Amino acid sequence: MLYREAGQFKASYQEDQQIFPIRQDRVGMAVVLAFFFVAVPLFANQYWLQAILIPVLIFSLAAIGLNILTGYAGQLSLGSAAFMAVGAFGAYNFMLRIDGMPFLLGILLGGLCAALVGVAFGLPSLRIKGFYLAVATLAAQFFIVWALVKFPWFSNYSSSGVISAQRVEILGYAFTTPESKYLLTLAIVAVLALVAKNLVRSTTGRSWMAVRDMDVAAEVIGIRPMRAKLSAFAVSSFYCGVAGALYAYTYLGTVEPEGFSLDLSFRILFMIIIGGVGSILGSFLGAAFIVLLPIFLNVAMHSVFGSAMPAGLGSNLELIIFGGLIIFFLIVEPHGLARLWQLGKDKLRLWPFPH
Amino acid sequence: MKLKQTALIGATIAGLLATGYAAAQEQFIGLPSYRVGPFGSNGASLYGGWIDYMAMVNARDGGVNGVKLTWEECETEYNNARGVECYERLKNKGPTGNTVFQPLSTGITYSVLEKVAQDKIPMVTIGYGRTDAADGSVFPWVFPMITTYWSQASAIVNYIGEKVGGMENLKGKRIALLFHDSAYGKESHAIIDKLAEKHGFEVQKIAVANPGNEQQAQWLQIRQSKPDYVILWGWGVMNATALRTAARTGYSRDKIVGVWWSGSEEDTIPAGDAAKGYVAAGFNVAGVDYPVIKDIQTHVYAKNAGNLEDKSRVGSVLYNRGVVHGIITVEAIRKAQEKFGGGKPLTGEQVRWGFENLDLDSAKLEALGAAGFMPDLKITCADHEGGGKVKFQQWDGAKWTVVSDWVEADRPLVRGMIEESAAAYAKEKGITPRDCAAES
């Protein structure tokens, strides 16, 4: 009923090929955007903005990055956190060393640094596949973190290796309040998500998917695997790099190379597995799930049991429940949360007459 | 969002009622603890000691001048992002918000360094964190108390100097620095280089990659170069491995001097016999023979209200360190009550004044039952470290025994470096340092 699209005719190719061909989707998207751009900054408090929404947005961006590489181009990567680190340290150094470097340009250059590094570490993908490639990207993870610690130039000779991000200023306006930082992050993430959505529908995206599904067949129909794979690495690392720069500038304020550990790479991988491999929406859902669930469990534990339960037991129970839920979701819906939404939508389009 | 918010508020209120700090005369302390993850056992001991001390103050004295202490834990998993979430979650709880933030993680310290100044919540980092924050004129809200990494490195060199019969005998000696290859481990480099230059010893820096459970190559290097002393700057599993490998390569354990994060029962017991004779620094000592620990046993554990399930851990190095955290927190609140009026909860800003004017001299420590347990401490506007003294303890195979008096750092040298580094930070961030002469 709600999703009935009877009467929505497409009179041109353009209309047929738009991102949201159904009117309800377009309206829904506009409502969601309006909600997050207008209602949230008005009503959410500092805790929600600073501790919940900003990290979810940033990890969504990183998950989109990994989803482009793993979900669309089929190249398994365990180096996402390292590419985030390149973005963060890249942006930091550009803004530190070039006077008057605009913030957005600095973030962009940080992302481009990550893209370059990503292409370099993507080279092995031309020869090796699957789990073997995962091991090669694992090398990127360790090498990049090691290099950032080893060469003090990257952290401007800080004695502890920790960098503290400069003030965020665009055209003289200083982004210091949680609301402004949230809006800035949201704007960047929204624009990049839109670009990603369009990218995966374009020739580039189709060549990625062709390579993913069968690279020999893709080569036969005239797709150059080298170009497809390396462009996927570049775009993916760019997204991760921008996410890393935002992580440093709008979220934590200070970062150290060890913060971008293998652990974080795994978390980003879990985000796309839980959210849905090969889906932009899934990246958001997965990031929200992985970031919010442990916090929700911690809050719930405290309010349900209070001080009745030993704190150590509570903390361990949270991990057990978290792990259990991940397994549960993987069993009931191996294609991720995005797939659940897809199924629900397909049903709604037919409802109430399923036959 | 609105719905989620309401749900969260509802859950929080339920939590508030359950733990019962709806009443007014209560001072809330948020505890960003960690009890899981690679350092979970360290966190459990330390926060356990801290909670037990506060529980003891509540049970024995009925709180601080009638103001009950309340607290809530938030699990950080030693993860920066979770730490920031905990900071935001805890900061507005209780009648006057969070009193003090002590994350026990250098990474989390850096992540909230600027937030604490905005929110007016003091942050106390005892024996970790950002070293140059000891300059209170640039970092009014941060208190790296008792001793910083730089003071510790200097105190260790002074201790070694004592061992070799005077600082002049250090000339020509060779000291190996076996460090955890991370921000934490590298924190020692600048000061050690300065000291080597000053005293004329040779320093050999040997890195151990995280987590450090394989050190054959490093100890082979040590065996070849035969240093007179080895400074062990480790963390977690690296410490026990270092001691075991040292035993295997035949390096005398009593020539190894550990830092305070390398000198707890969690490090020596797993190493077994190999740890016997090993010396480590500490700004608190181990053991239960102190009135303050006895009080905790009679007022808390005797009533089965202790935080640790394993009572044998009471009196361990890290547990006692948690008690030190408790003493400093409670005394700062008491000091602040002297100025801002007792019998009511204070804000973080008021307690900050208490920290800044904290003066725990030996008479005061004696009264607290902590004489010899922790060094005396005097914080001022400019000096947020306030002491820089450590004691050295030796592991005899079953327990730590104190083998030195309080050893002081080379204060002028360390202070000079702190001021230089803080000034650079102030310049980078555009901070005008406070004029401490005008404030006192």
Task: Describe the protein.
The complex is a heterodimer of chains A (355) and B (440). By secondary structure, chain A is mainly alpha-helical. Chain A has a domain at 44-259. Helix content of chain A is 72%, strand content 2%. The radius of gyration of chain A is 21 Å and the shape is globular. Chain B has 440 residues and is α/β, with parallel strands linked by helices. Chain B has helices at residues 2-19, 40-61, 80-90, 106-119, 149-163, 183-186, 189-199, 216-225, 237-249, 265-268, 291-299, 317-340, 348-356, 362-368, 411-429, 436-439, and strands at 26-31, 68-73, 123-124, 142-143, 174-180, 202-208, 229-233, 256-258, 279-282, 359-360, 377-378, 389-395, 400-402, 407-408. In chain B, the strands form 4 sheets. In chain B, strands 5, 6, 7, 8, 9, 12, 13 and 14 form an 8-stranded mixed beta sheet that branches. A two-stranded parallel ribbon of chain B has the order 1-2. Chain B has a two-stranded parallel sheet with strand order 3-4. In chain B, helix 2 (40-61) packs across helix 11 (291-299), helix 3 (80-90) packs parallel to helix 4 and helix 8 (216-225) packs across helix 9 (237-249). At the A-B interface, helix 2, helix 3, helix 12 and helix 13 of A face helix 1, helix 2, helix 3, helix 4 and helix 6 of B.
